[in-house]
Design brief:
The chain is mainly alpha-helical. About 70% of the residues lie in helices and about 0% in strands.
């Protein structure tokens, strides 16, 4: 984060360290969800993405 951006955020009354912590946690949650559903899709359809036949 550039020093200018950090100063603007601090001037707005936001705790920068807390903001960064929350953003990292949110990104980790998004990645985990994406990874989880990608694995589920691959198990359901196979790596070739062809639907299972009944």
């Amino acid at each position: 984060m550039s020093e200018h951006n950090r100063r603007l955020i601090e001037r707005a009354g936001i705790d920068v360290e807390k903001l960064l912590e929350l953003l990292v946690k949110a990104a980790a949650a998004e990645f985990t969800t994406y990874y989880y559903y990608t694995i589920l899709r691959n198990h359901a359809t196979g790596l070739e993405e062809k639907p299972l036949r009944r």
